[in-house]
Design goal:
This protein is mainly alpha-helical and about 260 residues long. It is about 75% helix and about 0% strand.
Length: about 260
Amino acid sequence: MFKKIATPFFFIVLFVVTNSCSKYQKLMKSTDFEEKYEMAVVYYNQGDYYKALQLFDAVLPFYRGTDKAEQLSYYYAYCHYQQGDHVLASYYFKRFTKNYPSSKYAEECYYMSAYCKYLDSPVYSLDPTSTIEAINELQLFIDVFPNSERITECNRLIDELNGKLEKKEFVIAEMYLKMEDYQAAITTFNNLLKDYPDTDYKEKTLFNLTKAYYFYALNSIETKKKERFQNAVVAYDTFVSTFPDSGYLKQASGYYNNAKKQLSN
């Protein structure tokens, strides 16, 4: 086997990297805050947000209350955002808007604070707290900046987030139905229709309500059956009038006919 001989290019790259790291370490130890700030901006513009953030962190106390504090705070929030730390980024963008409400960056940072909340929203099956916070923050942006060019995008993001909440509520309702907890299923399906009247799950929800009401009545004590079978009939009427050509119609008609027979008896 022949050993590979390192090329001059390799040594050049190694020298540049080593020299760069050495300069950065000396800069971090330096007490020249002006140079630190200027190099932080250089690193920021080069996309090296980690080094930029470390240097901005070092000079923040020194420039607090000065003319550079606003720009520095703007860079600082974006460093967190660019590194994927959406929780801290949202916090620092929001803090920027509070500290500099008249800044030319105020609207942008207000939006970015809400947008980072959106990015922090998890999949529908997990805790929806962050999703709800993101919706509230985006709606607040719309209220504060009603003429912003970002309104359309905010509405799109809100619709997407609401879609997660809709899906979560629908899945929970279906879970209750499968568990034969018909009362909980009925309550959850009705809440879904109340909260999201135009939900994409409306057809399946109305069918499931017919089914849930029917089995709820069927498993009730005698004194409660009449009222609950009547609820099943009403649920069926709502379903068939809304989706007359539904693929669930045959199955729903079975529940309806059985409910009518129970009522006639």
